[in-house]
Specification:
Binds the cellulose synthase activator, bis-(3'-5') cyclic diguanylic acid (c-di-GMP). Pfam families: BcsB. By secondary structure, the chain is α+β, with helices and mostly antiparallel strands. It has twelve helices and 41 strands. The chain has five domains: 169 residues, Sandwich (Jelly Rolls); 133 residues, Chitobiase, domain 2 (2-Layer Sandwich); 142 residues, Jelly Rolls; 211 residues, no CATH class; 37 residues. The strands form nine sheets. The protein has a seven-stranded mixed beta sheet. Helix 3 packs parallel to helix 4, helix 3 packs parallel to helix 6 and helix 6 packs parallel to helix 9. The protein starts with 11 loop residues before the first helix and ends with a helix.
Length: 770
């Protein structure tokens, strides 16, 4: 039998031809599909893909990045949705379930929507008069041969409202594509070779925007050495996954039916590896699942735990030139320890950062269309502890250019951050030379576009750890009247790549505990991107839920920094004294070792099996009050009292408090009443909607709800100079500030008075001598 083709070697559409042989005349039934029966030998011989796993995927336009309904306006306009297909999967069938509305003022015979996939026309959609203005649902089968790795589903709207001369931008010309529209795909898994060169595939694929779910397999899931190596691999996958989130289900001595990572030493390895010869060096091996050849296993091995850790670190650091089915790590040179705040994904405070450095492609800074009303989104992740008190703002040097026309003076450029509007600038006309904001551009940009620049400051209080800078152009098309005789000019607008954000001069100082900083950026642990100042404490007998929460937390921190953090210390509760001079991430379901009970006076809540003790919660923390809270606003010790509650319901909490082992160090505790409740934490850490609700020093997680509170007093961490720190804290105490001013004034008065008396005495002495 001829070898099975590899997707990486032939076009996607060609593989789809093979997959089409599996389709039935009923297009595989777009309703719920029944699991296929086991293929016969004859079927396998005729079609090698018939025996491979397949899955059903339903994704909405909202999940594909369309945040709101797609509005198409004017005589001609268009919008698109991007769809990607994993490298190891083949589209066998596709069904678009489209929800849309057309303007009731359209002429049915002249108005329609063209639907295209990768510039191939799928269907032209028009409606009778009685269906205009009413939401419509339409199911459109799509030929799977049209799909490639990266796909663009484009909607082109053509609308007319009168048979006579019409205004090309009349308000009655619109179509709305709902972001509830969905795409149903049947995906067949493709066989991959046992080659390490494919990494990070199939465990991570940048084409897949779903949560990265990779099972970890151990012989003994309680072995701390193997768990430490697993943390390095989890940090590597977290760095790659970024916004997608991670899950790492744990399996002990059994293999799941999906791509997995296996950890083994010569003395502790799963049963399916017992027949393999022992290894003498740290080893990375790609192999097929014993029962499902299309499923891949990445086996991380070592003679002992030290070698296992070396193999995991080599993978995480990308130090090995991987190829072939198996490789040994004979030598590994670790990089120097990272300096504070040098995470690759964080804007540096050492120099201005160009906007071109923050986007993946220069085209992300450009817009085009016949009437521009679009937004350029630029990610800007900053250290969450930037001290912005009494600062004018974050300087942004913005250079932009656009195609001018006779109505440019009616256009504007609006600047927002995190969906909070900051300021709008009117766009000047091409012949307006009154503005002093013009810049001379290189001849390369002499394309008839108007060029301008603006210097302004983003209000500091709007800037958090993870930000989106939104630059919106509103540029109307030229109005030629109802009877236009020329085609409207395509408009273009662009942000110059040399525009920059300047964080120089900002210091680091933050009130703690701050669960918002932890949930969004992993702070304070990510202050050092390699986690070299972090200790992670597990129970003496960790459960699978404890270990999964630990792995998810490590992956989440690496996603925030863009670097695999492998230098953290992993220990159990009995070794807590070793964590004295570090920040501590404490994970415990039910406080089985009594560590949280020992620190009960410092923490806002204590949860053990069947019982929870908490300070009486007087108010929930809002994002705005947390932002402007000063030390004088924080609760005082003992002011809220205690309450002890008993019950059997699951409850999970994330708590923050100052380390009882050393002042200035922080503890973040992931705690729950039991393993079921602990699952809410590691799922919550990968859920952006829940992360946005975490703040203060206490966050309860119950089912789909997150409630946050500020219970205990705050303390500060950072590096402000003494005079700035004194002035900041005096500013929070007006009476003390007034007294300090009076004392300073009296002191200066006495000094001046003494100096004048001394000067007068010298003069009198001189006259007497004369």
């Amino acid at each position: 039998m001829s070898p099975i083709p590899n997707k990486s070697n032939i076009p996607h559409w060609a593989l789809a031809v093979i997959g089409l042989t599996l389709l039935t005349p009923a297009v595989c039934g777009f309703a719920q599909e029944q699991p296929p029966s086991a293929p016969t030998a004859a079927a396998l011989a005729a079609n090698p893909l018939a025996g491979l796993p397949r899955r059903e995927l339903t994704t909405t336009f909202q999940q594909l990045g369309q945040g709101s309904s797609m509005m198409l306006r004017g005589v001609e306009s268009e919008g698109s949705v991007n769809i990607s297909v994993r490298r190891d999967e083949l589209v066998e069938s596709a069904l678009l379930r489209l929800t849309f509305t057309l303007s009731p003022s359209l002429i049915p015979s002249l108005s329609h929507i063209k639907l295209l996939l990768n510039e191939e026309l799928l269907q032209t959609i028009s409606l009778p008069k009685e269906q205009l203005g009413v939401p419509q649902k339409l199911e459109i089968p799509i030929d799977p041969r049209l799909f490639t790795d990266y796909n663009r589903l484009r909607f082109q709207f053509v609308g007319h409202y009168t048979m006579d001369c019409e205004m090309p931008n009349h308000t009655s010309l619109w179509a709305s594509i709902s972001n509830d529209s969905q795409l149903d795909l049947t995906l067949r898994q493709l066989p991959l070779s046992d080659d390490l060169e494919l990494l990070p595939a199939p465990f991570f694929d940048s084409r897949d925007n779903q949560i990265v779910n990779v099972p970890f397999v151990f012989a003994d899931a309680k072995d701390m050495g193997q768990l430490k190596a697993a943390g390095s691999v989890a940090s590597w996958l977290g760095m790659l996954s970024g916004y997608r989130g991670n899950r790492f289900p744990l399996f002990e001595n059994q293999l799941p039916e999906r791509n997995s990572v296996v950890f083994a030493t010569n003395d502790h390895r799963p049963d399916f590896l017992k027949e393999q010869p022992p290894v003498a060096q740290p080893t990375l091996t790609m192999m097929s699942h014993p029962e499902h050849p299309a499923i891949k296993l990445l086996v991380v091995q070592g003679k002992d735990n030290a070698q296992l850790q070396q193999a995991a670190d080599a993978l995480a650091l990308g130090k090995a030139a991987l190829s072939g089915s198996s490789m040994q790590v004979t030598k590994l040179e670790y990089p120097e320890k990272r300096k504070p705040y040098d995470a690759p994904r964080w804007l540096t405070t050492k120099r201005p950062v160009l906007l071109s450095e923050l986007v993946s492609n220069p085209s992300d800074l450009q817009l085009r269309g016949y009437a521009l009303n679009n937004t350029i989104n630029i990610p800007a992740r900053m250290a969450p502890d930037l001290f912005s008190w009494n600062a004018r703002g974050v300087p942004l040097q913005l250079n932009y250019r656009y195609t001018p026309n006779s109505v440019s003076q009616h256009g504007s450029l609006s600047v927002s951050i995190n969906n909070q509007f900051i300021k709008a600038y009117p766009l000047r006309a091409a012949d307006d030379d009154k503005s002093g904001k013009s810049t001379i551009m290189l001849p390369l940009f002499e394309d008839g576009s108007t060029q301008a620049s603006s210097d302004f400051r983003i209000p500091s209080f709007l800037v958090g750890g993870d930000n989106q800078l939104q630059l919106g152009f509103q540029l109307p098309a030229t109005d030629l009247g109802q009877c236009r005789s020329t085609q409207p000019t395509e408009l273009r607008a662009a942000i110059d790549p040399e525009s920059n954000i300047d964080l120089r001069g900002f210091r680091h100082y933050l009130p703690m505990p701050n669960l918002a900083a932890y949930a969004n950026s992993g702070y304070p642990f990510t202050k050092y991107a390699d986690l070299s100042q972090t200790s992670i404490v597990l129970p003496n007998q960790p459960t699978a839920a404890d270990a999964e929460a630990y792995l998810t937390a490590v992956a989440r921190m690496s996603a925030a920094t863009g670097l695999a953090g492998i230098r953290f210390n992993l220990m159990n509760a009995s070794q807590i004294e070793k964590a004295r001079d570090t920040d501590i991430l404490l994970i415990s379901a039910g406080d089985k070792d009594g560590l949280l009970q020992k620190w009960s006076q410092d923490i806002p809540t204590l949860i053990v099996a069947g019982k929870r003790t908490t300070h009486l919660l007087e108010r929930a923390v809002s994002s705005l009050s947390e932002l402007f809270q000063h030390a004088s606003d924080a609760p005082t010790p003992g002011s809220s009292g205690l309450a002890t509650l008993e019950g059997k319901g699951p409850l999970a909490a994330i708590v923050g408090f100052e380390s009882p082992l050393q002042k200035g160090r922080s503890v973040v505790g992931l705690t729950a009443s039991d393993d079921i409740a602990m699952a809410q934490i590691y799922r919550g850490l990968s859920d952006s909607s829940k992360i946005s609700a975490m703040r203060g020093d206490l966050s309860f997680l119950r089912s789909e709800q997150v409630e946050s509170f500020r219970v205990n007093p705050i303390y500060y961490v950072g590096d402000l100079p003494w005079w700035q720190r004194m002035w900041f804290h005096l500013h929070n105490h007006p009476v003390a500030l007034a007294l300090a001013g009076i004392v300073t004034g009296l002191l200066l008065t006495f000094l001046v008075y003494g100096a004048l008396r001394s000067l007068a005495a010298r003069r009198l002495g001189g006259k007497n001598n004369a």
